[in-house]
TrEMBL record, chains A, B:
Residues 11-26 have a biased composition (Polar residues). GO terms for biological process: carbohydrate metabolic process. Keywords: Hydrolase. Residues 1-29 are annotated as: Disordered. Transmembrane segments: none annotated. One of its GO terms (molecular function) is hydrolase activity. Residues 436-524 form the Non-reducing end beta-L-arabinofuranosidase-like GH127 middle domain. This is Glycoside hydrolase family 127 protein. It comes from Desertihabitans brevis. Residues 526-644 form the Non-reducing end beta-L-arabinofuranosidase-like GH127 C-terminal domain. It comes from the Bacteria. It holds the Pfam family Glyco_hydro127M.
Length: 653, 653
């Protein structure tokens, strides 16, 4: 197979890079043409840059690199044997980290990154088998006989997928083709091994689908796209059942083309749909795209937390029933938010619809960002929307594994790294004569016809200044107006240029001149939202949002004696909005009035707790809310996003 | 060690039979002296009698008996080797079934039961090793080397415990000592093997504690009580951690004597506390009893469902945080309700407090009874308080494994059998000069000084007629007045004999004469209850109770087009109460007014579902509720115990 890139293949440092032949409405501006230069995300990315460095130490400590050294004969007896450590998918953490290194290098080149990349790439290359097979854990634990022996659990394609994604990122960002050669050998091995007319089987954990389409985009080799098509279509026909597995968990109960919603393991589900979206755009399969669009809408409406978190069940890390969205037991794995972002980004490129930009923004600022500490080096695996003050310390006080530097199952940390470093790739996209800005940050955008410099205090301020730095004549600038931005306005050189209708794009076609200034003003009204009435778990509760941020009440910010487990919000004047530069690296807080819940007349289905459980109505107090993403950076104690709405009288509604 | 019963040992066919030396306030009336002769529970027990017969076929089909035959050399090569089938605790299902056979024989003697008992007991005896060790699965799978090699998971003491309980029941009910001899050999082997000065270790799953105390009660051998004491005290000091296990799940995080609540795996937790209660009463350990009393109260107030269901988490089948009681994801394993009943019964004997009789009744009529079908031969493993109509059929429509004839993990079915057959043992207890009636059924009670014939339509009617059939002179009759029975009255031969204060016992000291009639009238007012405000999952909701029964709305009983997922109850006139002899083998239904929930003004944190998710306010409709225990006997569809309380205007509170 040829690995020369045919003319249809684009260049550019994008995490997802459709070919010119793809049926997308626009193509992403890569990291080479979209750069975050300051503000909110620049701070997060600085922390992320440090995290990438620490990540290498973590991979060393956890033994992931050791596995590769053993398998490659670089240590131990030198014969490629030895005791593998960690989970069967240990290699994937290395690959996700390598991908992060590539995006990080594109974001801010540094020699130490290239050195690390060369070192680790060499380990990976050495571990690869002559026929292209590569999975250090399987090689060490069960050798050739173990290959693909337990696909539902072995994660062999999953690891291959992450390797391919890393290799593609490496070529795009550093030009180094060493890992790509490994990836191509592995992909060719997969092509020779799997398919309708070959071994008819799929991996238990999707990601290979996205990866193979990207490898096709990078190399132009049709066989990779075809194999991705095969893996997407082979699912949902009971292959997992042939291993005696319950298929739902593996997204194998219903074929992707027939599914009406997402179900089962949340990360698997959205990785699969994201890959299917890549497939649909590269094959011009509008029917498949329409199905995926419906699936996303249903997921968003019935199985998505306010934070954009996905997956409500701890057991099997799964999506629950429609509207089964308990805030306290939300699983909302950080990796699921990342998969959701990847899917939304692909749907946005395909459809150009603002709601995907809105969804991506909600997941980015909340469900995703809460998964990493402000220092950038500690992570949540699980992201609940409520933690009780009555939680039992040793058992449950820290949700899931808590915010930790690493996990035995370490999928989330390197996933956060690659997402954070590659973030600029999600800001904007281009089409002939059009530059679309989807996310707002202080940044420079180098579009086909238009260069822009963005300046903003977003998300603390809703004002975005876009100055034209380069223009090749007449073109259209499209700016997303978030669905929440009621009353948004846009001016060009001070002149009203609206309408700026929320939930869409304002389109400014001009004969742009350098120095022209566009001002987008998105009013950051504090929004009090309630859930669909079928979301039984938060009945009678409200949550607070401002701009793209979901807010949360954290125990440490409340007056002494205020128990978040018992409070209700008192409806009344708007929240007091205050930006506090010294708090949590600078956040805007909301202050509202609340009081302890009053006990209803009769609520004694069972005796009271020994300590007397009925809260007595208390006086009004101030309650302070912080952005959800910033919780658990000071202590782990009571936190809640949804709060019961009381009445001025204090009786709970 | 002697196995002669010293004088302190009582006789009588009781599931839990304290010695005369035990610090209990009363002793149970065994099945030989308490007989259910008609009414509600007689119907349930008839179904149970059939289920015990079917149980033998199930054990044959599932391979549990096959394991014992192999281990005993009764089949296969005859050398005690072969391929064991099923879970490592497979033997315990046989033992629980053998225990059920014993109680069933006491309830209604039948030759076929004795034959089955002799057959299966012979299999068990043959499988026992010369030194007394017995666990067919461990013997077959890993032989002598496998003994106690993985106590956290091997369930070896757990199986031993159930064997002992069966053996004790067999002797008490049939006089056959064959299984007791096996149990004694096994218990002696455990005594020789485990203890502070021997192997210092505990089983991952309690039950051996209860069993050893009962074996002591049966045989009078102090070593068994001492070993029970050891197993109770050895827990909570990190023995599980020495196996690398997280201790909470195994009730091993905190010593029983220091615990303030229950946590971890629900069944393990309450089996342990029930055993600790037996230990406390037989050793006169009032401090331990006080601790257990506080633990029960905290469990009841903060970790117990309205149905008496225990354990809110599917992951690890565990108790959740205090007040973490989601109705939809309630785990509430049937075995946990049974363990709760066993604990409450022991606490009732120890303390004589009516609240334990109330708790037992709530668990019995709701959390326990819902676990078995009206036919008696199909079971729920998990007992949620809500099932959505929007549940996805193939995935989640049937809660947990659904109501099935048997399970791969078949702990619940034989546990239901032994509880149902032994039920009469929970009705009443005696103390010198006192007969206490704790539960009401049509039955005969043969107390020390007093014989009674009870006639009642309980739980459909609250009127209980007690006629004296025998009296040896002056004695006190104590009748539990449930906490819910406001306005209860009691008469003797028509004369007011009150006060009958709810939540206590009415005490009637008389020179009783045969023919005298006591009438207890417990008003079955329909009660609308709400939960503690910290139970976030049911905020703004109410549930309905009548007498001991919790009610539920099931889809099949509603008018066409009524979606239980969307309804609210309309406050207004009392529910219409109607007894329907033809429905679900005769139930009293409640009819109330409700309407679809109205959508609040703003509840759009995310777009609507494609199919349009916002219910429009609808007209009032009748909503019909049935007793919770009877749900899922016609179809599996939407069901809910907790329903949002609307307002006359229809806006949801």
């Amino acid at each position: 197979m040829s690995s020369d890139a045919p003319p249809v293949v684009r260049t550019g440092q994008s995490p997802a890079r459709p070919t010119d032949a793809a049926t997308v409405t626009s193509h992403p501006l890569g990291l080479d043409r979209a750069r975050i230069t300051g503000g909110f995300w620049a701070d997060r990315q600085r922390a992320g840059a440090e995290a990438v460095r620490v990540g290498h130490e973590q991979l060393e400590r956890a033994g992931n690199l050791h596995n590769l050294r053993l398998a490659g004969g670089r240590t131990g007896g030198g014969d490629g044997t030895g005791e593998a450590v960690g989970p069967v998918f240990a290699d994937s953490d290395v690959y996700k980290w390598l991908e992060a290194v590539a995006w990080e290098y594109a974001r801010e080149p540094a020699e130490d990154l290239l050195e690390r990349q060369r070192e680790v790439t060499a380990l990976v290359a050495a571990a690869q088998q002559p026929d292209g097979y590569l999975n250090s854990v399987v090689q060490l634990r069960s050798g050739e006989a173990g290959r693909y022996a337990d696909l539902p659990w072995s994660h062999e394609h999953y690891c291959a997928g992450h390797l391919i994604q890393a290799a593609v990122a490496q070529v795009r960002c550093t030009g180094d083709r060493a890992l790509l050669e490994v990836a191509v050998r592995l992909a060719d091995h997969l092509v020779e091994t799997f398919g309708e007319d070959r071994r008819h089987d799929v991996d238990g954990h999707p990601v290979i689908e996205m990866a193979l389409v990207e490898l096709y985009r990078e190399t132009g080799t049709p066989a990779y796209l075809e194999l991705a098509r095969y893996f997407v279509d082979a699912r949902g026909h009971g292959l997992m059942a042939s291993y005696g597995k319950e298929p739902t968990y593996f997204s194998d109960r219903v074929p992707v083309r027939e599914a009406t919603t997402v179900e089962g393991h949340a990360v698997r589900a959205v990785y699969l749909t994201a890959g299917a979206t890549d497939l649909a755009t590269e094959t011009g399969d509008t029917a498949l795209l329409a199905t995926l669009d419906a699936q996303f809408s249903t997921m968003w409406a019935t199985k998505t937390y306010l934070t954009g978190g996905l997956g409500s069940r701890w057991d099997w890390e799964a999506f629950g029933e429609p509207y089964e969205l308990p805030p306290d037991r939300a699983y909302a794995e950080t990796c699921a938010a990342i998969g959701g972002i990847q899917w939304a980004w692909r749907m946005l490129l395909a459809t150009g619809e603002a709601r995907y930009g809105d969804a991506l923004e909600r997941m980015l600022f909340n469900g995703f960002l809460a998964g990493v500490s402000l220092h950038g080096t500690e992570y949540f695996y699980v992201n609940p929307l409520q933690l009780r003050g009555s939680s039992q310390p040793d058992e449950n006080r820290s949700p899931a594994h808590g915010r930790r530097g690493w996990f035995a199952c370490a999928c989330c940390p390197p996933n956060v790294m690659r997402t954070m470093s590659g973030l600029a790739g999600l800001l904007a996209s281009t089409a002939p004569g059009v530059l679309s800005v989807h996310q707002y940050a202080t940044a420079t955008l180098d579009g086909d016809e238009l260069g822009l410099e963005l300046t903003t205090d977003y998300p603390w301020s809703g004002q975005v200044r876009l100055e034209v730095t380069r223009s090749s004549g007449r073109s259209t600038l499209r700016l997303r107006v978030p669905g929440w931005a009621a009353g948004a306005t846009v001016t060009v050189d001070g002149a009203e240029a609206g309408p700026a209708t929320p939930g869409g794009y304002v389109e400014l076609e001009r004969d742009w001149q350098p120095g022209q200034v566009v001002l987008l003003d998105l009013p950051l009204t504090v929004r009090t939202v309630t859930a669909h009435p079928r979301v039984d778990a938060v009945r009678g509760c409200v949550a607070l949002e401002r701009g793209p941020l979901v807010y949360a009440f954290e125990h440490v910010d409340q007056q002494p004696g205020v128990e978040l487990d018992d409070i209700t919000l008192v409806p009344g004047p708007d929240a007091r909005v205050q930006h506090e530069p010294g708090l949590l690296e600078g956040v805007t807080t909301l202050t509202l009035r609340g009081r302890p819940a009053r006990a209803p007349e009769e609520y004694r289905p069972w005796p009271w707790p020994v300590d007397g459980g009925a809260p007595v109505p208390g006086d009004e107090v101030d309650l302070v809310a912080i952005p959800y993403y910033a919780w658990a950076n000071r202590e782990i104690d009571a936190m809640r996003v949804w709060v019961p709405l009381g009445s001025p009288g204090g009786t709970p509604s």
